User: Which sequence fits this backbone?
C-alpha cells in the first residue's frame, strides 16, 4: 500500500475507527516517533515493571454519542472500558484516573448523573477512581462531554500472542454487536425502534475466572472494529491464520434485524462486554465451563481455531458452507460508538 | 456559600479555571460520589501502593488554544505537564500514556509535528510513552486536537502539606506568568505583539535535586490559577496562613507590560515550568543553592513564609508596604491556557 501520507493529508473519521486506517495512522505517526518496546507491542495497554512489580497501564478516551444509551452511559462506559482493557491483559484492575473535557453549558445534572454512574461502575468493578482532571471548553469545542480514563493494575499472568500456535481454540463469551447497535439506535436518526441493549459490562471477574487455567494464552475485548478486527489483530500478530465458523457466532435477533436493515456486518460492530479467548486445545473444555459458570459468559462458544496455513489472515466458514476472508475494518461503519 | 447547584445549573468556563469554582465543582460532584482517601487529598495526583511499591499516578487533559505558541505546543505541554505533576509529588516520572481526541480534517502534518514534539519532550524528560489511544470526532466536536496524558512514577519521598508548620519558607523557582501570556498573545486577538515565551519545561530534575534535602516538605507547580491559587491550596490544606512579599516575586518586563495593558494580575497567571517549594527554615539556604545550580531554577527566590495567624488565608505584602489578601482565583481570567 502507498504510505498514508499520499492518500490522506487530512485526518478522517475513519482514522478513529479502530480498523486498518487507525492502525496505519498509529504506525506511521506514532510508532515512528516513539520507538520503544512497550508501544511496538500495539496492545491495548503496556506492561511495565516498577519496583519489581509488573504493572499493566492503559488509556482510553470516550467520545460516545449520544452520552446516554440503552444499557449505559459515557461514565459507566469509561470505567468498564478501561477495566476491561486491563483485565484482558491478564491484570487485576486497581486504580483509574478520570480526565473530563466538558463543553460549556452542559447541564449540571447531566454531569452529576455521569459522576454517579462512574462511581457505581467503579464499585461494581472493584476499582478505585483515585485522581482526576476537569477542563471546560467553549461551546462547539466538544460534544457535551468527553472522558478519558487511564488505569493501572497488577499483572497476574503474562499473556501474549507469541505463545499462540496452530490448533489453539478461539472462544467468545457471547453474542456480538449489541453495544454498537444500541448506541446507533439511541441517536434517533432512524425511523424504527428496537429493544437492543448495550452489552456493557466489567470483564475482570470473568477474566480472572479463566486466568487460572494454564492453557489460556490470550484475551482481548472486541470493541471498536468488532470481532473481525480483533481476530485480524491476533492473526497478524502471530503470522498464522484463524478460521471461524459463522454458525457458532451468536447474533441476537435485534442486532440481526438492524444489520439486515442498515447493511451492517455484525462481525465489525463494537462490543463492550465480550471477551475473545485463545486457549490451548486440550483445556478448551475447562475454559468453556468456567466461562459459562459466570453470568457474563453463559453464552460462551468455541467459534474457531488457529490454522497453520492462511498466513495472518482470518477466514470465515459461512452458514451455507462457503468461505470468506474477513479483513480488518477498512474505514468506519459508524463513528463514535466507544 | 450556597451550594453551587443553586448558583449554576450549567457548567461555565470558569468551572475549568482551576480556581475556586473548579474546586467547588470537584467537591460537590466528584468527591461526593467517589469518597476514597486518595481523592480526598485533592492533590494533582494520587499516591497508591502496588506490590509494596509507592506509585504516583496522575492525569491531565490539554485543551490549550492555540495549539502552537512561543516556547511550545500542545504535545510538549502534555508531556511536560504530566511529568511535572509527578515530579512535584516527590516521584520519579517513568511512564506516560497519550489519549488523543482529534477533530476530523486536522492536517496530518500538524499531527505529525505534535507527535514529534511529544517524542522529543519525552526524551528530554526521560520518560517513556508506553500506551495510547486515538479518537476522531466530527468537525465542530473538538478544537483541532485535545491530548490527555496520564503518568506513573515511583515515589522517592513522601511529601504532604501535613508536615508544614509556621516559620517554613516558601520558595519559587523563577518569575511568573510567562506561559499564560505567551498563549494569550499567540491567539492574535490583541492589537500588539510581545516577545514573551512560555516557561514550559520539565521539572523532574529540579525536583530531584532538592528532594535529597531533609527539610523539603512540599512542592507544587503553579499552573492553572497561578501562584496565588497554589498558595491558597497550601494554606487551606494546613489551616495556617501564608505571607508573601510582592517585591520578591519575579515578573518579567514583557509579562508586566501585558498585565498592565489588559488588567491581569500576574499572580493568577498559569506557569508551566515553575515550582513552589515549602521548606523548613533552617535548610532554606541549601535548597535555594541547589535550585539556583539548576538552569531551570537560577532565578529562585524565597518569596514568603508560613504564618501561625491568618488561618488558611494568603496575605501579600505589597511593594509600597501595604497588605492585601490574595484569594483563590474566583472565575476565570482566561480559558484554555493549559
Assistant:
Amino acid at each position: 500500500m502507498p504510505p498514508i501520507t499520499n492518500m490522506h493529508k487530512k485526518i478522517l473519521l475513519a482514522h478513529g475507527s479502530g480498523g486498518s486506517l487507525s492502525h496505519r495512522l498509529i504506525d506511521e505517526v506514532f510508532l515512528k516517533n516513539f520507538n520503544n518496546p512497550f508501544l511496538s507491542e500495539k496492545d491495548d495497554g503496556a506492561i511495565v515493571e516498577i519496583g519489581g512489580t509488573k504493572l499493566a497501564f492503559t488509556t482510553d478516551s470516550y467520545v460516545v454519542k449520544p452520552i446516554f444509551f440503552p444499557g449505559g452511559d459515557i461514565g459507566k462506559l469509561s470505567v468498564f472500558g478501561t477495566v476491561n482493557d486491563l483485565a484482558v491483559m491478564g491484570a487485576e484492575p486497581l486504580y483509574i484516573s478520570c480526565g473530563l473535557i466538558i463543553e460549556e453549558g452542559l447541564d449540571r445534572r447531566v454531569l452529576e448523573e455521569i459522576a454517579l454512574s462512574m462511581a457505581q461502575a467503579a464499585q461494581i468493578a472493584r476499582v478505585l477512581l483515585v485522581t482526576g482532571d476537569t477542563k471546560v471548553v467553549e461551546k462547539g469545542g466538544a460534544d457535551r462531554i468527553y472522558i478519558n480514563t487511564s488505569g493501572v493494575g497488577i499483572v497476574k499472568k503474562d499473556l501474549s500472542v507469541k505463545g499462540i500456535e496452530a490448533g489453539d481454540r478461539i472462544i467468545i463469551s457471547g453474542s456480538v454487536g449489541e453495544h454498537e447497535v444500541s448506541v446507533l439506535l439511541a441517536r434517533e436518526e432512524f425511523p424504527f425502534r428496537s429493544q437492543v441493549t448495550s452489552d456493557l459490562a466489567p470483564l475482570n471477574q470473568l477474566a480472572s475466572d479463566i486466568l487460572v487455567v494454564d492453557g489460556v494464552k490470550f484475551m482481548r475485548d472486541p470493541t471498536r472494529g468488532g470481532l473481525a478486527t480483533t481476530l485480524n489483530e491476533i492473526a497478524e500478530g502471530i503470522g498464522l491464520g484463524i478460521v471461524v465458523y459463522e454458525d457458532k457466532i451468536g447474533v441476537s435477533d435485534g442486532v440481526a434485524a438492524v444489520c439486515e436493515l442498515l447493511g451492517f456486518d455484525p462481525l465489525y460492530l463494537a462490543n463492550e462486554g465480550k471477551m475473545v479467548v485463545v486457549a490451548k486445545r486440550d483445556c478448551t473444555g475447562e475454559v468453556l465451563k468456567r466461562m459459562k459458570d459466570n453470568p457474563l459468559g453463559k453464552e460462551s462458544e468455541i467459534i474457531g481455531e488457529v490454522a497453520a496455513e492462511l498466513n495472518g489472515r482470518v477466514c470465515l466458514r459461512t452458514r451455507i458452507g462457503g468461505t470468506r476472508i474477513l479483513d480488518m475494518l477498512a474505514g468506519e461503519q459508524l463513528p463514535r460508538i466507544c
Summary: Residues 1-6 of chain B have pLDDT under 50 and may be disordered. Chain B has two domains: 43-155, 161-325. Chain B touches chain A through 84 residues (CB under 8 Å). The two ends of chain B are 28 Å apart (CA to CA).
